[in-house]
Design goal:
Layout: H1 12-37, E1 40-41, H2 43-50, H3 54-62, E2 69-71, E3 74-78, H4 79-88, H5 94-109
Length: 111
Amino acid sequence: MESFPKLVLITPHELEQLIRKVLSEDKAAPQSRQHAEHEYLNMAEASKYLQLPQNTLYVFCHERRIPYSKRGKRNYFLRADLDEWMASHRKMSAKEIEVETMANLRKKGKR
């Protein structure tokens, strides 16, 4: 036997309340995402987030190769800083290198 969707009747007032609720949830979502960017991670959380061993992170901190904050004996990492650090170490693909090289050759040819 086939199952058909049930028809639900609501009043205009209930519809208005439902729409207001959905809209208020949508407005709250970007704030929660923004809050996550300003979230501090401890060493274990940063290690898991970056998928790097904690020992490697300690070395990076010691060599000042990664942004971090120190509170007492503990290191903390701002999630947004880690995202930016990862992006700054991105390697270009072969296609991106080719496009950039061609653009540079065109610029030099115009001189």
